């Protein structure tokens, strides 16, 4: 049957949605009122009772020292005035002791409640963050350094920023309450003293806000260095890199590079620390002068009989209290500001535009494949400044057929498969599933119809069962299905014979769930490949099977056996098989030779041999290498 496809009408462009959204030179997200309210909403959702408790504690914490100072004044004035009743003094003393106890205990309680609030909020924030990250259907963002930088900062901010913004904000409130109480008490004695102390706090506020802005900018600038440092640290610590690093004696070089990244980060931190030292020294000097002036004025007023001895004690407490409270307010306001800047990166990740165009609102399920998949004049490049990887591919994959993709390294075979899975959209042209443009279908609906084993498959540090079951999370507990898939991939005997069978960890990096690290095993490369194939097989019944180099790591017997199984499995199914072993793909319905991003040859094995083109040359080359003169 010949299927005629309608002409393409979709406007195409080089720009992939969202791909230019997060650049290194983009203005950084600023602290904003919306950021504050978003943090507050999150904390309220995650830990409402704790939020109320922290607010109550903040209010009590602000009032307690003022109450203590007022009680002390009353005690002193009562004592100096004479003629007092003992009961009054006892009551005052008890009140004073109570205020002192509250002042001492509040911070302990506060820390406990804040820690729990932080934990709950952090968990919720991280969950929201990774829901958003999971929602990015394509791969483009994960290859964008600016996005990765933002994600790392956002991830760190998620743990602490929202809780910290709210708690430190309440701390600021507590400081303001305390400062207002002390200022009112001081103003009642002498308003000039109150003004002097209040104005002395303003430079601290400005300086701390400036420092917080610098700190946040520095975290952004250091992100790439720190990511590199983690990367080098990983090379030194991870078992996957250990062989090459040791054999090549590359450890010292990697360590030097790691320390280089650390040194750049340290240098920037040092510059900031010097600025902090200079700023805080200036502020401390200012505070000392203000205190000294305040003390001299108060003693002068007491000497002149204008204020009482108790008033002097109140002024001394107020001076220290106001200064401490206002410095605390400046510090915590700066901290809120700093956390809001980092929180802005978190919110920016949540607001990251999708890198794939959304399907039309009414797009529904994708029907089972009946006719075939067509690539019509497909062009693709990974970025605008990179060369074309696919340059006008025209290809029809009929339903129920096996198409083998062959071609030199870098020809674009895996890229083509990635477009079929819609990890990227074509830069130009279109891919149609029974005539429906893939961009007009929800991406999940498309992927539900695919199964694949990729060339760079994952080796999960999971149990054997989970390593296979993860291919279809709804079937993680479907042990018969998992063992059947493993059987089809020729992995069952090996996995069943492991110390804990399918419950054995395929890792020596993590212990079993019960903490026993002894039973974890490492598989060989070929065994891992079979597990990866089993994952593909678990998703049986899908419309399109993609196998990218499914047997590259297998021994000859295993390769023969796997290809035999694949042949049986593929019969009547639509599949795409990529392989450099041309002998393994000769029985495909059609063999497509990609080169330079285009389809150069296309036809069954015999037809391509008869054509005597590039495929025939490569096939004979391999056949000779295997010692087979004729094929
Ligand atoms: N994520 C990426 N970002 C940028 N360029 C990429 C990316 N992946 C692949 N490329 C480039 O695209 C080209 C085609 O790569 P692809 O992996 O599709 O080739 P292939 O035909 O599968 O090669 P091989 O036979 O070696 O597996 C290569 O030049 C490669 O450098």
Structural write-up:
The chain has 631 residues and is α/β, with parallel strands linked by helices. The protein folds into three domains: 33-350, ABC transporter type 1, transmembrane domain (ABC transporter transmembrane region fold); 361-449 and 545-631, Rossmann fold, CATH 3.40.50; 459-541, no CATH class. 60% of the residues lie in helices and 9% in strands. It is built from 18 helices and ten strands. The chain has helices at residues 33-46, 48-81, 86-134, 145-189, 191-237, 239-247, 251-303, 309-350, 413-420, 443-447, 464-469, 479-488, 492-496, 525-538, 556-570, 582-585, 605-611, 614-625; strands at residues 372-380, 390-398, 402-406, 428-433, 436-437, 450-453, 544-548, 574-578, 590-595, 598-603. Strands 6-7-8-3-9-10 form a six-stranded mixed sheet, sandwiched between helices. Strands 2-1-4-5 form a four-stranded antiparallel sheet, with helices on one face. β9 (590-595) and β10 form a beta hairpin. α1 (33-46) packs across α3 (86-134), α2 runs parallel beside α4 (145-189) and α5 (191-237) crosses α6 (239-247). The radius of gyration is 35 Å and the shape is elongated. The two termini are 31 Å apart. Residues 1-31 have low confidence and may be disordered. The structure holds adenosine-5'-triphosphate.
């Amino acid at each position: 049957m010949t299927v005629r496809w309608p002409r393409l009408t979709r406007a195409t462009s080089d720009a992939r949605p969202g791909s230019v959204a997060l650049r290194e030179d983009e203005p950084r997200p600023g602290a904003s009122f919306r950021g504050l309210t978003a943090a507050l909403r999150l904390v309220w959702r995650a830990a409402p009772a704790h939020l109320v408790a922290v607010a109550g504690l903040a209010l009590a914490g602000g009032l307690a020292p003022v109450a203590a100072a007022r009680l002390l004044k009353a005690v002193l004035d009562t004592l100096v005035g004479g003629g007092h009743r003992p009961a009054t003094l006892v009551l005052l003393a008890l009140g004073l002791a109570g205020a002192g106890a509250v002042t001492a205990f509040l911070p302990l309680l506060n820390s406990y409640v804040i820690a729990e609030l932080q934990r709950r909020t952090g968990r919720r924030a991280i969950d929201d963050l990774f829901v958003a990250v999971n929602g990015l259907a394509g791969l483009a963002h994960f290859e964008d350094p600016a996005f990765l930088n933002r994600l790392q900062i956002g991830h760190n901010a998620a743990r602490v920023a929202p809780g910290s913004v709210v708690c430190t904000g309440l701390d600021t409130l507590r400081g303001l309450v305390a400062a207002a109480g002390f200022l009112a008490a001081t103003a009642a004695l002498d308003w000039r003293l109150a003004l002097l102390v209040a104005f002395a706090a303003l430079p601290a506020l400005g300086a701390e806000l400036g420092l917080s802005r610098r700190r946040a900018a520095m975290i952004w600038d250091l992100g790439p260095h720190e990511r590199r440092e983690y990367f080098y640290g990983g090379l030194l610590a991870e078992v996957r890199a250990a062989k090459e690093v040791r054999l090549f004696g590359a450890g010292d070089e990697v360590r030097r590079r790691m320390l280089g990244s650390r040194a750049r980060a340290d240098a920037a931190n040092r510059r900031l620390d010097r600025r902090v030292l200079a700023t805080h020294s200036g502020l401390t000097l200012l505070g000392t002068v203000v205190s000294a002036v305040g003390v001299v004025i108060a003693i002068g007023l007491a000497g002149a009989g204008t204020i009482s001895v108790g008033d002097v004690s109140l002024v001394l407490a107020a001076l220290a209290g106001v200064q401490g409270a206002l410095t605390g307010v400046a510090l915590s306001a700066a901290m809120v500001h700093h956390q809001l800047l980092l929180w802005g990166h978190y919110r920016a990740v949540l607001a990251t535009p999708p890198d794939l165009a959304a399907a039309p609102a009414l797009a529904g399920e994708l029907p089972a494949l009946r006719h075939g998949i067509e690539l019509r004049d497909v062009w693709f490049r990974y970025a605008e400044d990179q060369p074309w990887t696919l340059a006008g591919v025209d290809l029809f994959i009929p339903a129920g057929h096996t198409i083998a993709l062959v071609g030199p390294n870098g020809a674009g075979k895996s890229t083509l498969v990635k477009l079929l899975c819609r990890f990227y959209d074509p830069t130009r042209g279109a891919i149609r599933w029974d005539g429906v443009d893939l961009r007009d279908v929800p991406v999940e609906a498309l992927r539900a119809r695919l199964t694949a084993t990729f060339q760079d498959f994952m080796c999960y540090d999971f149990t054997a069962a989970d390593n296979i079951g993860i291919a279809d999370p709804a079937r993680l507990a479907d042990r018969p299905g998992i063992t059947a898939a493993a059987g089809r991939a020729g992995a069952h005997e090996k996995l069943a014979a492991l110390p804990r069978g399918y419950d054995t960890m395929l890792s020596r990096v993590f212990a079993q769930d019960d903490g026993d690290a002894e039973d974890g095993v490492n598989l060989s490369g070929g065994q891992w490949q079979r597990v990866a194939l089993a994952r593909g097989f678990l998703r049986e019944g899908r419309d399109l099977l993609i196998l990218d180099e499914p047997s590259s790591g297998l021994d000859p017997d295993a390769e023969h056996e796997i290809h035999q199984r694949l042949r049986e499995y593929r019969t009547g199914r639509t599949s795409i098989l990529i392989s450099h072993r041309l002998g393994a793909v000769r029985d495909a319905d059609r063999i497509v030779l990609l080169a330079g991003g285009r389809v150069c040859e296309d036809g069954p094995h015999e037809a391509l041999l008869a054509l005597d083109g590039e495929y025939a040359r490569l096939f004979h080359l391999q056949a000779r290498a295997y010692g087979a003169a004729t094929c």
